[in-house]
Amino acid sequence: MIEFSIFFFFAAIAVIFAATVVLHRNPVVGALSLVASFFALAVMYVLLEAPFLAVLQVIVYAGAIMVLFLFVIMLLNLQHQAEPRTRPVQQFLGYTTSAAFGLALVYYLAKFGVTQLPDGPFVSDARTIGIRMFEAYIFPFEMVSILLLAAIVGALLLSGRTGASGETTKSESPAPPQIEVAP
Amino acid sequence: MNLTPLLENGWMNAILPELILSIGGMVLILFDAFAPKLRGATASLAVIVFVAAGWGERMVIGGNWFGGTYQVSGITILFDYTFLLAAILASLFARAYLAREGFERGEFYAMLMWGTVGMMMMAKGLDLLIVILGLELLSICIFILVGFHRRIAVSNEASLKYFLMGAFATGFILYGTALFYGATGSTNFAAFSKYFATADASNPLLTIAFVLMMSGLGFKLAVAPFHGWAPDVYQGAPSPVAGWLSVAPKAATLIALIRIFSSMTPVIQQASWMKMVAALSILSMIIGNAVAIAQRDLKRMLAYSGIAHVGYMLIALLSLRDESVAAISIYVITYALMNIGAFGVVSMLAKNQNDPQTLDDIAGLGFRRPFYGLALTICMFSLSGLPPTAGFIAKFYIFKTAVDSGHMTVAIIGILTSIVSVYYYLRVVYFLYMKEGEAAQTEGHGHDAVHPSASAFRAPLLDADIFGTGALVISLAGIFAIGLFPTPLFNAAGAAARALLP
Amino acid sequence: MLNTLWLIPILPFAGFLLNGLFGKRLGKGFVTAVALLMSFGAAVAGTIAVVQYHAAYPTGARHVNLVYNWIASGSISADLAFQLDPLSVVMLMVVTWVGFLIHLYSVGYMAHEDGYWRYFAYLNFFLSEMLVLILGSSYLLMFVGWEGVGLCSYLLIGFYYQTDYAPAAGKKAFIVNRIGDFGFLIAMFLMFAYFGSVDFAKVSSIAAGGGVEQWLLTAICLLLFLGACGKSAQIPLYVWLPDAMAGPTPVSALIHAATMVTAGVYMVVRSNALYRLAPGAMMVVALVGALTALFAATIGIRQWDIKKVLAYSTVSQLGFMFIGVGVGAFTAGIFHLVTHAFFKACLFLGSGSVIHAMSGEQDMRKMGGLKSKIPITYWTFAIATYAIAGFPPFAGFFSKDEILASALNNPYFPKPFSWLIWSLGTIAAFCTAYYMYRLVYLTFFGKFRGTHDQEHHLHESPPSMTIPLIILAALSAVGGALLGWPHHHFLAHWLAPIFPEMHGVPEAQYEISPNAEYALMLVSSAIAVIGWWIARTRFRTRGLEADDQFAENMPAVARGMENKWYVDEAYGATIVRPLERFSRFLWRGIDALIDGTLALVGYIVAAIGDLLRFFQTGNVRNYALMFFLGVIVFIWVLA
Amino acid sequence: MTNILSITLWLPIAAAVILLFFPKTAATAIKGFGLLASLATFVASLGILCEFQEGVAGLQLTESLAWIPQWGIRYALGVDGISLWLILLTTLLTPVVFLSSWNTIHKHPKEYVIAFLIMEAAMIGVFVASDLLLFYVFFELTLLPMYLVIGVWGGANRIYAAIKFFLFTIAGSLLMLLGIIYLAFAHFHDTGVLTFTITELYGTMLTPHAQVLLFFAFALAFAIKVPLFPLHTWLPDAHVEAPTGGSILLAGVMLKMGTYGFLRFVLPFFPDATAKYAGLLIALAVIGIVYGALVAWVQPDMKKLVAYSSVSHLGFCVLGIFALNQTSIEGSILQMVNHGLSTGALFLCVGVIYERRHTRLLADYGGLAKTMPVFATFFIIAMLSSVGLPGLNGFIGEFLILAGSFQTWPRWTIVAATGVILAAIYLLWLIQRVFFGPITNDENKTVSEIAWNEITALVPLVVLMVWIGVRPNIFLRKMTPSVQQLLQIVHKTDTSKALVAQTRLPNPTPLAPAVGGVR
Amino acid sequence: MIPTHWFLILSAILFTIGVCGVLTRKNGITIFMCIELMVNAVNLTFVAYARQFHQIHGLLFVFFVMAIAAAEAAVGLAIFISLFHHRHTIDVDEANLMRW
Questions:
Q1: Which of B462, B435, B206, B486 has the alpha carbon at shortest distance from B333?
Q2: Average of pLDDT values for B72-94?
Q3: Theoretical Cys-Cys bridge with C396: which of C67, C387, C444, C624, CB 3.0 to 4.6 Å?
Q4: Contact between chains at E63 and A105 (C-beta distance less than 8 A)
């Protein structure tokens, strides 16, 4: 029973804070709510017998990614920017369609989702995961490194100021007429 | 602790091209960082890496690798060549572009390489995990490449749009994958095949999963109605990138789709999921071609035409046969040649990125810049599917497949929309040759005959960067080679396709 | 010669080529020599051929000279072959010799014209085509000549191309003729379809063999007659001939009086086997002929242009010929054709001589009293007038009388119809006498009404012009008696072989009781005399006053006659202009509608494009919504 | 020389490739080379004529190489009586084009010559291809150079005309492409052999429904090309705006690709549907004859007049084709050649005065016979050929068509024959307006006489007009066996046999089947 | 044991909320956060199914998804920074230089 109460409690937290992200107009509040929601999800992972993932969730998501978000928000000084409400059609369609989508999804999941649970414990500790990761998933794992490398390089490249390293001063004057229309 | 990684013998040979490209990208970045003086050589270096990767394709060993999650076969090699071709063309065109914009950086080519690796993973992955990883790797590289021209707002805006839509679509793909996982207990295509052989076609959850995944991949393909980003992104992206972007990711997504679809037979037909594909195809052909008429910006026009072209490719996908796979591979290769070629010309004709590349800007260029004019003309004719260009062969193959498998309605819509498409492709030719440009009028064009020396000194082939011209020559040669002698390619594609499908 | 019949048309054709290609450079002497030589050569060659023919075929059988197979395709086969038979012989003689005379005349008449070489080239060309027409052994070859003479007529009418009216008249002639040719063509198609051939002999033997449906014969005959109407200027297609007077006068004499316009008559006689089997068609021919004869004659009464009068008289006389062939008196038709060739050529050439003397003036109101100034012209003209008016024993008397007699006594039609035809013809004959003498009196008698300059220049024509006049006048005087003295009818005897015997069909040369014939001769003579007398009393002394008086007494009739009964205007209002308006409607209406419809499709596509384009708002959230809506719709539809 | 067809086909293309390397400014060299190349092609095509064996029905001088073996597509060439004269017409008219435009093309002469050489090759290809897809490739390939020719060297409204031309044609031909594929697969499912070779596709069994659909897919493409009545509106625009050379080839050869397509594909592929819908096509053709003639009559622009006259004349060709008998089809083929000669000459003539006066409005002319007598002679001869004067070529064609079609469709033929009258009306009007009457416009007083190159271009056309008119059998003889064979294929099925056997004439007399066809 | 489909429903709700946020918010970073929410919802599904099947594959998938999300976050935020440099706002509605 306790399990169920925990589930419902944290499910409620997850949903409420998720809703706050969507509804609250201050991005800082949104980011913090998202962190809360992610915490609740971490609890869900524990309930689902995946403690390692729960830890990862807290560290990677709540800890790293969301901090990055907050950092950017602060950096750009966005915390005071409340967005005005415009585009009523977009808003209306957004709410209604997503509601319809959600209802349909919930309906079908409830109707056709699996109910029978297998017996026995679900071994999903860090060790098991690690072994699998470095045995069977070695190739995707290595590829993730490229992915992250690309992301880092890209982030540097994109967020760097113009005229920073790599760009010659030539670039300040637009368009050297190297290729021009012939007379 | 005794880790035994799942690495079969010769695994390095299996992924040799990927390895070359991954390492090549890193080398280029390092080269860029440590030898900034030699930046002019990065393009050459990049092309060498790509060629090396292509050479590496020759040594790959076919078969399933990494525990049956990675397939190397004829079709993947064919597609790898396509990706490499696209990348080489893009690199060649990019050199002059980057030099002009003052952006000659190794990262650009590194991103092209890693993006190519991502596409190769999409093409070869036998597990949705690999496919999605490849897709993400590709996406990240595209985000960066599209926004590469940071100084100007449109490039950044394009990057933003692509990023938001891409991430959004990724969410859908992932959710679809999750639902399939829930149904099959695996994300492996082999497991899919086993499951779908007996699956209940009427399960709506499966349908939802399919729709979600298809829409996410549809985003990558830029099919209507998931095409919203495409025109803006193509317009805003650096022209060489746009050309590459309009071809390579689509090719990768298509091969992934073929794998997914073939793993889902026979449910995919029973559950009439193909109706969705047909609808996407029809919508794309109509919207792409109709809206392209209204465009005056060349890159936007090509973007819409790209939407339409994916519609044509999806026609072939409607029937899952080796013929259709071969048709798609031919189309993709052809499309790479002609579309990147077209974007390349646009890129080479631009004065700078801020200029909108409208039709008026190319008015009268055909006679002033004969080679570019001819190249663009041939690309346009090929895009509109007129013989004796490759575009004709490709389109013919598509329609042949459609007729053969009884998809007459879609084929007829395809033909009718092709007629529409001819109009806007021809309009480009019209502007090239039949309209006097403003520049020409002010410069007193038409005095060529009076002052022969002015043009006589200018050998038409040498008045621009040798890289871009070389790329155009490759494009044109390819277009005509496929258009006139498609047999070797057919042999290759046919054999590859037969190997792919059971 | 008999096996080289093709030489006869080729000679003048060579003249055409020589003059056409080199005439301009080589000068008048060369042109004259070539033209005369070639036409004379044709005449001589023709005569030799005729003599040889008569020797070889005393019975009047058909001689065919096959040149080569011209068209062979499927069921269609047509030879390029020339033939001689009694009918061709008659035509050949008339055409070549009259043609030669007119060539001769033209040398004098055209001496000072600009396009001398062009003129003779055309004239030679005409001669050659006319010879093809009459020597051709099949309808198809006849058609070749038929169209060829039409072309020459077009070119020669439009000879003075720098004027407005001449080319227009030429065009009109060609187009109206084409309407007739249309009938001719369809008739040939019918022959090909049902007889399998258009060879004269084959067609006529098939028809004569019996068993051919009546409707088919009637259709063929009527369609051929449509062709004849065009070429021979019968109602309703006669309108081109008066306008054709825009050409040089010798052309009018040769083409529009003596030879080409009689081609229709020749054709009907040629097809006599068909016509005799289709009495309905003959009825139409006779009626149209009679109506034309009368109708044209009434217009001739009140024209002042000397050539116009003669033109209407030609139309009228052609009407007589069609009465003749229409009532089955084919011989009479040909007889009148020949005599008409003599006297009408003489009249036209005479009028040419008058015009020549008057320095190009054609209006009779400016003439008068020319008798003494140009006596040879006057006398030849007078003889020809006697002939056309039907005074015995001049040529026209015999032929016209024979036609009218046959009209009344023909074995084909019911009596009332025969009477109708006869009375129409007789009234026309009266009118003929009247207007011809009006012409003579206005032109040659009374006071000179022209300008002083013209009077000063009045002169007789050179011998090259008067010699043909004299020869033709002589033929007009005695030709009729020589060729067709009643009951000692040379022509009838000569032509007899061309009329095949057919079961159940009246003889082609049916007998008329001598009593009836002599009575009718009397009537004809009386009619001619009365016509002459009335004209004399009115115009001999009073001249133009008589015309004015006529206009005062009967203003409506006079105005109608003057304006040719407004036929051209009526055609314009009922056919030409509505057709033109209709064409404009097709162009501006239907074409625009088609284009508009297609443009509309284009616009719709473009509009769809433009409309869809506005879904592309540039706002990434809209794209996301679009994406999501797509997902929802697909889920909704598929799940 | 067994590969004479290939030589003829590739000569112009080779010349075009060589021309690419000519300097832009060497205009005379470029034109001279183009002329030489086209003359060489003509000589090569005379070789075809020499090698051609009379009395053989099927394709001759065949060449066949695998092109795309996977799809059974072959590089297969061949010539028979139907295509022989059209090939020669093409190779004849191209040098004529170069000659006529010798002095008139100042803008981009190199591109001009290249475009025409490629066009020539493509048109030859259309007529010699004996593989359906190869045919289609050439069929489409003709469009590109023509599009450029109209669009670049055309008149004021050239863009509209060029795009209209292109879209009309491509709309039809793309649907035909679908039809081609369908046909090939029908044959494939029938026999298990995927092939596009025309002769093998003859006799493909099709369901009646499919046959009708395919018939219309093909017929639409060709009807647009011909052009048949409601689809003709591209033609006047294209002709008017095209430069003289473009008009000559467009009218002279390109329109025949449509009629040729009917003969080569529509009739033998879909005999049942042909029999069923021949009436429809004939009705459209006849409407086109009358319509084109009437509209031509009221045109103020002489090029448009000639263009509409093409609509009328091509209507005759289609009438002849769908009358489905030996005579009419032979006449139709001959008429294609005739029209190429006469209308080609007319367009050339119109071009001649346009170059001198830069107006095509009839109202601006008058009395030119005075200043340009030689030219007037040529123009009048061309006009007479077009009018169908016996002794010239036009008559033979029209006569055979009408005489033939009269046996199967007498009523429509009678209506069509009025076209003969109407042709005289509008063409004589044209002549009169341009050449006769007083010179009203002072500019016409100083117009220079026709030049050597134009005379050289016109003389062969005139000679041929006369030759065909006088000795048509030389030309007809070569096509007879092929047409017979074609008709055998068409009449193989019961329905169409019944249709042709019972002529539409009421009450055929016992004499009806009398066939005087003794050769 | 809590039934799997409860988790699935929770994840569906979260996913929907994420979608809703993407569609209705204008602040780019908020939109991106909503996308992260969607991805997390997917993760929950994976984990739920992984337990359902007693399969570790689902968990590993989540691991990779997290890596992807991290990479995306890095690049995405860089793009936003760049956007802000250009326009001094991260309101995505403002980014409409290119349209139609």
A1: B486
A2: 90
A3: C387
A4: no
Closest C-chain CA to B229:
C623
| Among chain B residues, CA nearest to A162 | B151
Of B472, B250, B488, whose CA–CA distance to B382 is shortest?
Answer: B472
Residue B466 in contact with partner chain D when CB distance is under 8 A? no
The CATH code belonging to domain E4-91 is: 1.10.287.3510
B 289-328 → A contacts, CB under 8 A:
none
Instruction: Give the C-alpha separation, C107 to C622, whole Å.
Output: 94
Listed in sequence order, the residues at least 6 apart from E71 whose beta carbon sits closer than 8 Å to its beta carbon are A147, A148, A150, A151, B136, B140
Residues present in chain A in total: 183
Q: Which residues of C touch B168 (CB under 8 A)?
A: 624, 627
Distance from CA of D121 to the nearest CA of C (A): 31
Cα distance between residue B377 and residue B383, in whole Å: 10
Which residues of chain D have a CB within 8 Å of the CB of C77?
Answer: 516-519
Instruction: List chain E domain ranges.
Output: 4-91
Torsion angles phi and psi, residue B70, rounded to 5:
-145, 115
Distance from CA of E70 to the nearest CA of A (A): 6
Q: Among the residues of D192-207, which ranges form H helices?
A: 198-201
- Verify whether the Cβ–Cβ distance B275 to C638 is below 8 Å: yes
The distance from CA A79 to its chain's CA centroid, rounded to whole angstroms, is 19
Residue A3 and residue A47: Cα distance in Å, rounded?
7
Instruction: Return d(Cα C385, Cα C540) in angstroms, integer.
Output: 15
Instruction: Give which of D162, D160, D156, D165 is closest to D361, Cα–Cα.
Output: D156
Q: Does B143 reach chain E within 8 Å, measured CB to CB? A: yes
Indicate the pTM of the whole model: 0.89
Cβ–Cβ contacts within 10 Å for residue B322, how many?
Answer: 18
> Is B472 touching A (CB cutoff 8 A)?
no
Min CA distance, A119 vs chain B (Å)? Answer: 16
Helix residue spans in chain A (DSSP H) = 2-23, 27-47, 51-56, 66-75, 88-112, 126-135, 138-159
- Torsions phi, psi for C540 (to 5 deg): -55, -45
- pLDDT in tens for each of the 519 residues of chain D? 578 889 999 999 999 999 888 887 888 888 899 999 999 999 999 998 888 888 888 888 888 888 888 888 889 999 988 899 999 999 999 999 998 888 888 888 888 899 999 999 999 999 999 899 899 999 999 988 898 888 888 888 888 888 888 888 888 888 898 889 888 888 888 888 888 888 888 877 888 888 898 999 999 999 999 888 888 889 988 888 888 889 999 988 999 999 999 998 988 888 888 888 999 999 999 999 999 999 999 988 888 999 999 999 999 999 999 998 889 999 999 999 999 999 999 999 998 888 888 888 888 888 888 888 888 899 999 999 999 888 888 899 999 999 999 988 889 999 999 988 899 889 998 888 888 888 887 887 888 888 888 888 899 999 999 999 999 988 888 888 888 888 888 887 444 444 444 444 444 443 433 333 333
For B177, the token pair is 């994958």
DSSP 3-state of C432: helix
Cβ contact, residue pair C635, A104, below 8 Å: yes
Do the Cβ atoms of B236 and E97 come within 8 Å? yes
Place of tokens 């073929």: B258
Residue with tokens 């914009």: B101
Among the partner-chain residues E6, E56, E71, the one whose CB lies closest to the CB of A129 is E56
Of D27, D70, D144, Cβ closest to residue B386: D144
